[in-house]
C-alpha cells in the first residue's frame, strides 16, 4: 500500500509529472514541516496537500472559506477515487452526523471545513479523536488584515498550532505581497515555516489589447470564433453589464449579467448555470469570480480598463485554470483613462490615497499602451522577468514599427496654440481633419491656417497618436477643465524642432487581425477538423454525464483532458490512461463510455478504402473483427492486404482488445508453421522471409505473422 508520490499522482490524478515546486512542497509537508505556498490561481495548489493526505495514514483537515466550492471539490476528489467529505451549513443535521462518524472511524482522507464550522459545537474538541495528520489552510491570506480579503473567522485558526503543535500546517494562497505573507506565518504561529513562491507567469493565457471602439461588435466577432467556449466579460458598471448582456442575448448568445444589485438567489442561480455550462457568457462587475473554481473558463474580456494590475491579473487568472490555452482581451481607449481619472478625483479619498490610486492606474495604462511584450510588463509588476519575449501577446505577434512623429506633433500643437488651449480631443481631430461641422463653424475654426492639415490621417489614427503624444509628455491635458489640451515647455521644443518625438505606427484593426491570422495556416489540415468535431462530441457527452450526475462538467474531465483525448483518440485502457487527467478511478468510471464515443466517431468519419488518421484504421478493423469477418473478408472490405490486417489484429491484441488471434488461422496452418519455426530455429524478431521460403511459400505473410504472434503470446518454444 505504500505508494510513492509519483505513483499517487498518476493513479489518483492521472498526471505523469509534477509542476515546478509541487514535489518539493509535498516532500516538505511529508517530513512534518510547516510551509507557506504561493502559487497563482490555477497553478496547482490542491495537489500539494492532497497527495500528502493520501500518503499518510490519518486525516487531513482542509480549511477553506469558500463553502460554495466544497461540494464540487469533494466531488472531484471522489471521482478520482479519494475518500473525502465536507462539513458546512448546507448539509442537514443527520448528514453532518454521518460525516463526523466517518471522520471518527478513520474512513476519510480529507475533510473540508469552514473555520466558523470548525469552531462551532464541539467539532474542534473532536479533532483530537480523529487522528489528524495535516492541516491545510486554503486562501490563507484571509487570516491577515493586510490581505485583500480579511475574514475575522480566520483569526481563530491561531489556536491550531497551540493545540496541535505536532501536526504540520500548510498554508496556501495566490496573493503574493510580502507583508501579508509575513503576517500569515505570524498568525499561524509558524514564523520559520518554509515559503515556496512559484512563478506567477501563466503562459497558457494569451494577452491582447484591442482599441476600444465598437466593443460589442468586436465581442460578437470574437464569440463567433469561440463557439460554446465559456467566458467572462468584466464591465465597470452594473448598467454596462446589463446593456452588454442584452446586446449579446439579442444576437443569440447565452449570456447573463451578474452584479451586486441582483438578489442572492438570482446570483447563485446564474453562477450555478455557468458552472454547469448552461450559460456560455457571464457579463459581470468585479463582484463575480471570488467563489468559483470553474476550470474551463476559456476566455476573459475586459470591457473597461481595470483600476490596477492586481485586479486585472486576478480577473484574467480565472481563465484557463486547467492549463489549456485561454484568451484574454482588454479593450482600451484614452477615454477609459479619463473615466478612471475622474473616478479617482471624485473618490473622496485622502490626497495620499489618490496619489497611490493614480500610480496604480499608471501601471495599468503602461500595460494597455505597451509596445514591448505585454507579459514582460505584467510580470515586472510581480518582480519577475522572463528570458525571452512571450510570443503569446498581441505585441509579440505584431511587432511595432516606430517613426519620427515630429510633423504629426507639430500639426496638433499648432492647432492647440491657435485655439488658445481651449479644445479637447474631439474638436482637435475635427479641426485637423477639416470637418465642417456646426461646432467647428460656430467657432470659426475653419478659418484657422491649421484647418484640414491632418486630413491624410483617419480619426482613429489621430486618436491613437494624440494618446501617444500625451504619454510622451509632449502636451498636457487639463482634467479639471473639460479635458482640454495644454501646451508645456516640451511642446514648445517640439514646435521649434528642438525635440523629435518618436511614435509607434498605428495598425488599423482590420489589418492587425489579418496579420495575426497569417500566422495560422489558412486552411486547417483535415486532422484538425476531425479533432475539433471530436472534441465537440466528447464535450457533449461530458455535459450529458455531468447533468445526469449533477456535477459541473469539468469535474468529470477538464477541457485539457478532453482536448488531449480528441487529439490522441485513445481506444484501449492503456492509451486512455496515458491521457493526462485520466487516473485509475476516472478510467473505471468513464473510460469505456468515452472510448465508445471515440470509436463511434471514427466509424462515422471513415469511408471504406480511405486512409484515415492513424489509430482509426485499427478501430475499423476491430469493428469488422467483432462483426465476425474472416481475415480475407476484412482485407477485401477494407481494401488492404491480409498481412496489414494481420498486423492490425496483432496490435489490437497487444492493446488488450480481446482479439483471439488463434481463431484467425486454422490449427493445421498454425502447427505446420510452428514446425518450420523449430526446423530453422526461428527467433522472435528475426526477419520472416527465411521462414516464408522454408515453408515453400505455402502460407502467406499474414498467416506467418499471426502464427508467430500466437506462439509468442502462448510463450511456448
Ligand atoms: P489552484 O488551487 O492553485 O488554483 P488547482 O489545484 O485547482 O489550482 O489546479 C489547477 C489545475 O491544474 C487542475 O485542473 C489540476 O488538476 C491541474 N494540475 C495540478 N497539478 C498538475 C500536474 N502536476 N500536472 C497536470 N495538471 C495539474
Ligand atoms: Zn509577448
Describe the SSE topology:
Elements: H1 5-13, H2 22-30, E1 35-38, H3 46-55, E2 59-63, H4 67-79, E3 84-87, H5 93-104, E4 110-113, H6 115-118, H7 123-126, E5 132-137, H8 152-155, H9 159-163, E6 169-173, H10 178-187, E7 194-197, E8 205-211, H11 215-225, E9 231-234, H12 238-250, E10 255-258, H13 264-275, E11 281-284, E12 299-302, H14 309-316, E13 326-332, H15 334-345, H16 351-368, H17 374-381, H18 394-397, E14 402-404, H19 406-418, H20 425-433, H21 438-442, H22 459-471, E15 476-478, E16 484-486, H23 489-495, E17 502-504, H24 509-518, H25 526-549, H26 553-556, H27 559-568, H28 573-577, H29 584-604, H30 616-626, H31 631-638, H32 642-654, H33 667-679, H34 689-694, H35 701-714
Parallel strand pairs: 1-6, 1-7, 2-4, 2-5, 3-4, 5-6, 8-13, 9-11, 9-12, 10-11, 12-13
Antiparallel strand pairs: 14-17, 15-16
Helix pairs in contact: 2-3, 15-16, 16-17, 19-20, 19-23, 20-22, 25-27, 25-29, 30-32, 31-32, 32-35, 33-35
Bound molecules: adenosine-5'-diphosphate and zinc ion (ZN).
Radius of gyration: 32 Å
Determine the mean pLDDT: 88
User: Major β-sheet, in short?
Assistant: 7 strands, parallel
Portion in strands:
5-15%
* N-to-C span: 37 Å
Question: CATH class of the largest domain, please?
Answer: Alpha Beta
Query: What is the CATH fold-level name of the largest domain?
Result: Rossmann fold
Amino acid at each position: 500500500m505504500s505508494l510513492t508520490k509519483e505513483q499517487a499522482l498518476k493513479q489518483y490524478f492521472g498526471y505523469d509529472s509534477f509542476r515546478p515546486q509541487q514535489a518539493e512542497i509535498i516532500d516538505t509537508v511529508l517530513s512534518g514541516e510547516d510551509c507557506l505556498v504561493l502559487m497563482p490561481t490555477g497553478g496547482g495548489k490542491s495537489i500539494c496537500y492532497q497527495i500528502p493526505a493520501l500518503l499518510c495514514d490519518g486525516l487531513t483537515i482542509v480549511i477553506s472559506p469558500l463553502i460554495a466550492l466544497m461540494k464540487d471539490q469533494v466531488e472531484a476528489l471522489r471521482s478520482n477515487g479519494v475518500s473525502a467529505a465536507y462539513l458546512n451549513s448546507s448539509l442537514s443535521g443527520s448528514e453532518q452526523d454521518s460525516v463526523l462518524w466517518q471522520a471518527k472511524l478513520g474512513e476519510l482522507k480529507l475533510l473540508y471545513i469552514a473555520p466558523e464550522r470548525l469552531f462551532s459545537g464541539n467539532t474542534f474538541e473532536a479533532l483530537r479523536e480523529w487522528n489528524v495528520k495535516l492541516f491545510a489552510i486554503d486562501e490563507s491570506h484571509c487570516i491577515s488584515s493586510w490581505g485583500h480579503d480579511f475574514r475575522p473567522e480566520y483569526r481563530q485558526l491561531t489556536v491550531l498550532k497551540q493545540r496541535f503543535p505536532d501536526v504540520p500546517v500548510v498554508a496556501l494562497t495566490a496573493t503574493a505581497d510580502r507583508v501579508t505573507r509575513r503576517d500569515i506565518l505570524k498568525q499561524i504561529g509558524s514564523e520559520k515555516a518554509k515559503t515556496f513562491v512559484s512563478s506567477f507567469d501563466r503562459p497558457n493565457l494569451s494577452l491582447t489589447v484591442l482599441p476600444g471602439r465598437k466593443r460589442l461588435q468586436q465581442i460578437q466577432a470574437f464569440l463567433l470564433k469561440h463557439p460554446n467556449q465559456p467566458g467572462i466579460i468584466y464591465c465597470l458598471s452594473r448598467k454596462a453589464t446589463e446593456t452588454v448582456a442584452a446586446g449579446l442575448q439579442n444576437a443569440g448568445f447565452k449570456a447573463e449579467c451578474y452584479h451586486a444589485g441582483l438578489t442572492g438567489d438570482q446570483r447563485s442561480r446564474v453562477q450555478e448555470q455557468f458552472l454547469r455550462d448552461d450559460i456560455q457568457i457571464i457579463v459581470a462587475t468585479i463582484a463575480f469570480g471570488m467563489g468559483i473554481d470553474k476550470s474551463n473558463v476559456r476566455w476573459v474580456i475586459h470591457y473597461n480598463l481595470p483600476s490596477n494590475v492586481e485586479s486585472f491579473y486576478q480577473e484574467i487568472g480565472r481563465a484557463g485554470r486547467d492549463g489549456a490555452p485561454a484568451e484574454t482581451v482588454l479593450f482600451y481607449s484614452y477615454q477609459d483613462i479619463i473615466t478612471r481619472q475622474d473616478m479617482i478625483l471624485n473618490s473622496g479619498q485622502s490626497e495620499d490615497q489618490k496619489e497611490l490610486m493614480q500610480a496604480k492606474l499608471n501601471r495599468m495604462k503602461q500595460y494597455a499602451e505597451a509596445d514591448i511584450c505585454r507579459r514582460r510588463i505584467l510580470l515586472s509588476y510581480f518582480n519577475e522577468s522572463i528570458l525571452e519575449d512571450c510570443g503569446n501577446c498581441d505585441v509579440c505577434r505584431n511587432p511595432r514599427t516606430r517613426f519620427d512623429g515630429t510633423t504629426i506633433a507639430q500639426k496638433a500643437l499648432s492647432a492647440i496654440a491657435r485655439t488658445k488651449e481651449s479644445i479637447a480631443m474631439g474638436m482637435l481631430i475635427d479641426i485637423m481633419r477639416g470637418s465642417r461641422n456646426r461646432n467647428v463653424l460656430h467657432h470659426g475654426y475653419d478659418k484657422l491656417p491649421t484647418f484640414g492639415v491632418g486630413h491624410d490621417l483617419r480619426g482613429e489614427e489621430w486618436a491613437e497618436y494624440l494618446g501617444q503624444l500625451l504619454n510622451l509628455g509632449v502636451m498636457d491635458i487639463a482634467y479639471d477643465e473639460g479635458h482640454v489640451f495644454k501646451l508645456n515647455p516640451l511642446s514648445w521644443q517640439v514646435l521649434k524642432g528642438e525635440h523629435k518625438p518618436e511614435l509607434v505606427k498605428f495598425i488599423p484593426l482590420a489589418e492587425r487581425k489579418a496579420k495575426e491570422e497569417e500566422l495560422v495556416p489558412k486552411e486547417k489540415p483535415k486532422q484538425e477538423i476531425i479533432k475539433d468535431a471530436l472534441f465537440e462530441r466528447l464535450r457533449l457527452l461530458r455535459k450529458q454525464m455531468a447533468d445526469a450526475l449533477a456535477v459541473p462538467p469539468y469535474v468529470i474531465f477538464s477541457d485539457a483532458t478532453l482536448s488531449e483525448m480528441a487529439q490522441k483518440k485513445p481506444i484501449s485502457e492503456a492509451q486512455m490512461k496515458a491521457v493526462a487527467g485520466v487516473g485509475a478511478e476516472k478510467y473505471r468510471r468513464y473510460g469505456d463510455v468515452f472510448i465508445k464515443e471515440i470509436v463511434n466517431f471514427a466509424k462515422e468519419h471513415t469511408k471504406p478504402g480511405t486512409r484515415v488518421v492513424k489509430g482509426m484504421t485499427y478501430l475499423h478493423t476491430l469493428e469488422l473483427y467483432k462483426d465476425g469477418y474472416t481475415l480475407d473478408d476484412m482485407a477485401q472490405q477494407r481494401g488492404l492486404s491480409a498481412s496489414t490486417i494481420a498486423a492490425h489484429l496483432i496490435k489490437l491484441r497487444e492493446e488488450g482488445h480481446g482479439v483471439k488471434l488463434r481463431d484467425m488461422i486454422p490449427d493445421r496452418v498454425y502447427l505446420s508453421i510452428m514446425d518450420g519455426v523449430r526446423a530453422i530455429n526461428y527467433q522472435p524478431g528475426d526477419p520472416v522471409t527465411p521462414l516464408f521460403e522454408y515453408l515453400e511459400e505455402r502460407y502467406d505473410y499474414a498467416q506467418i505473422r499471426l502464427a508467430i504472434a500466437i506462439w509468442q503470446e502462448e510463450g511456448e518454444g
